[in-house]
Amino acid sequence: xxxxxxLADDHAVVRMGLVAVLAHHKDLHVVAQAQDxxxxxxxxxxxxxxxxxxxxRMPSLDGIAATAAIRAASADAKVLxxxxxxxxxxxxxxxxxxxxxxxxxDAGPDDLVKAIRAVxxxxxxxxxxxxxxxxxxxxxxxxTARQIEVLGLxxxxxxxxxxxxxxxxxxDGAKAHVKQIxxxxxxxxxxxxxAEGMRRGxxxxxx
Length: 207
Hints:
Blueprint: E1 3-8, H1 12-22, E2 28-34, H2 37-47, E3 51-54, H3 63-73, E4 79-83, H4 88-97, E5 101-104, H5 109-120, H6 128-139, H7 145-155, H8 160-167, H9 171-185, H10 190-200
Parallel strand pairs: 1-2, 1-3, 3-4, 4-5
Helix pairs in contact: 2-3, 3-4, 7-9, 7-10, 8-9, 9-10
């Protein structure tokens, strides 16, 4: 059986490389290529591929929003995220949007082909380290929207008093949020909280 593929990546050289790798496998056939998320959604509706290889960060519409749009239009659509980003937050958002698998661009050709075939067969494909990330996330309580705001202010070096003023809450209220952040992230101080927030992809400073 031939697996029909849609490639979505804003870098032409990446798409060319994928085409070259996939050309060695007779059961894999690239039917269309998209350079951004909006084009991916349009081409998916037009070609109805068996699997879409979707980059995470693209202009006009990112890979997560494009995946959600594709899945909304076609509930049985299969999307394999192919990206350089693997923070817990990125993985969580991609899978929540309906992605069937998640693979990093530094994966070898054999893993890429295995992932495509697995997703085409209706299986979920996740590297072992991402499976561990998901397990760790499920074991810990997620931060609330307000706690994420507080964490962002911690990253700016704000004191509890300054955080309270910025958010219109009392200093004691800010302190309580900071304490809950420490508990949820399982850290002991502000520096560790910011580092853990960056590791999980909750904070996007410097991206």
